[in-house]
Amino acid sequence: MSEHIGHLIHGEIHCDSEQTQAVFNPATGAQCAVVGMASTATVDQAISSANKAYPAWRNTPPAARAQVMYRFKTLLEENSDKICELITREHGKVLSDAKGELARGIENVEFACGIPELLKGEHSRNVGRNVDAWSEFQPLGAVAGITPFNFPAMVPLWMWPSAVMCGNTFILKPSERDPASVLYIAQLAFEAGLPAGVLNVVNGGPDVVNQLIDAPEIQAVSFVGSTPIAEAIYQRSSNNGKRCQALGGAKNHAVVMPDADLENVTSALMGAAFGSCGQRCMAISVAVAVGDKVADALIEKLKPQIESLKIGPGTDNSNEMGPIITAAQKDKVAAYVAQAIEQGAEAVVDGSTIVVPNYESGYFFGGTLFDKVTPEMTIYQEEVFGPVLVVVRVKTLEEAVELINDHEYGNGTCIFTRDGEASRYFSDKVMVGMVGINVPLPVPVSYHSFGGWKRSLFGDLHAYGPDSIRFYTRRKAITQRWPSGGVKDGTLFSFPSF
Ligand code: NAD
């Protein structure tokens, strides 16, 4: 019988008689578990648990909350092998990449440990005679988070540690494609001393998400996933009068200048385009070569490296690239590749036919490289979310920036150059939320915040870091005086002045 992945409600694993959905190991194509798709009643229980836990948690001193986070961080480190095995089993990424993902998630937990400092308000003495004023940041209540498949451990850790450390309670709806590591991590949080109900995990699909967004008890919604769903969730949350941040998809460009060190650029692009099989929202999927000479030299260097990529199951650490998440996504990537050829792109390496010996039923797709891609082509316009890198040729840096700014997405980008002036021009003018200068994947560290521009993010605040404190709290401005011997001013019909 398959392992059954349930929900975590009020600190207990919960399985109802609900529907289930199969979870597959993408390296073998075999079913490895089933995940419960929460019924309406189960989601209601999660909401009521989060609501019940809120008043006591809100009043727990931040320093006491932080103690839970310190213990949780230690448990994450002690159990990292088990967590990474679960990530690799269901997502397919190589174990070393799963370790990297978890390490970035742990950084977010470390950030949350500093919450007593971060929650400090602002204070002004004597704003009027004997009048003091301050702002404090109060939690919102029960909040919800919905996360994607591609970072099953890290993206939930972007959200709930900050949210609960601010004094909120949290309901997490992870991806139904790889739910095991998330549930295990949530259990570790309770082992660390998180009170029942402060974090609940419900598995399921769109129905569960919609029930959470529509529940009057849920005060705010954080979402990370594809752009069409992000936009719909942002709209629905806003229509319900809720605060929402919804991070969406991407098409990340790397500009290669004529003075760049092409050895370094090639290594950087290999990792950034093909790491995690291209299934990262910060993956580089477009190389913008400034000048034909750069383009020709880059293609010459990339081609043999892509052809010799080591592809296979993530459990073998000598592999560089694992499989795609599902058979359906693999077919989608193959369709994008076929369409690009039809539309006139030049396939330098076509990975659509690779077979990994002994893993013939796995969802593997080889590294793919296209040259002479133009902005009108679908492969340029849409997010492929697979191991496909395209080269677009431009004549100048200005043209490169214009190209990037015209794209609907604006998540990440980078420039490779030795020229300070060019990089300054680029970082100033480019309409993208996260910019790398000779850094291919400029994912901000946990004490900065993460977010794209344009259709890569709906909402005002970015995820994790300082913005998360603002997202998960509400400002309250308090003005106070203590008149001795009673109020002596008499009635005032105008604004008081000094
Ligand atoms: P997805 O949009 O299919 O799913 C994300 C979450 O939304 C899942 O929990 C899923 O169950 C839920 N969902 C799916 N359809 C829904 C619907 N109709 N209504 C309500 N909820 C629904 O995304 P995915 O395939 O899991 O993840 C890959 C996508 O996420 C890519 O587009 C990638 O760029 C994006 N992503 C973005 C970031 C970022 O920070 N901007 C980070 C990671 C992933």
UniProtKB/TrEMBL annotation:
<dbReference type="InterPro" id="IPR016163">
    <property type="entry name" value="Ald_DH_C"/>
</dbReference>
<dbReference type="Pfam" id="PF00171">
    <property type="entry name" value="Aldedh"/>
</dbReference>
<dbReference type="InterPro" id="IPR016160">
    <property type="entry name" value="Ald_DH_CS_CYS"/>
</dbReference>
<protein>
    <recommendedName>
        <fullName>methylmalonate-semialdehyde dehydrogenase (CoA acylating)</fullName>
        <ecNumber>1.2.1.27</ecNumber>
    </recommendedName>
</protein>
<dbReference type="InterPro" id="IPR015590">
    <property type="entry name" value="Aldehyde_DH_dom"/>
</dbReference>
<dbReference type="InterPro" id="IPR016162">
    <property type="entry name" value="Ald_DH_N"/>
</dbReference>
<keyword id="KW-0560">Oxidoreductase</keyword>
<keyword id="KW-0520">NAD</keyword>
<feature type="domain" description="Aldehyde dehydrogenase">
    <location>
        <begin position="17"/>
        <end position="478"/>
    </location>
</feature>
<dbReference type="InterPro" id="IPR010061">
    <property type="entry name" value="MeMal-semiAld_DH"/>
</dbReference>
<dbReference type="InterPro" id="IPR016161">
    <property type="entry name" value="Ald_DH/histidinol_DH"/>
</dbReference>
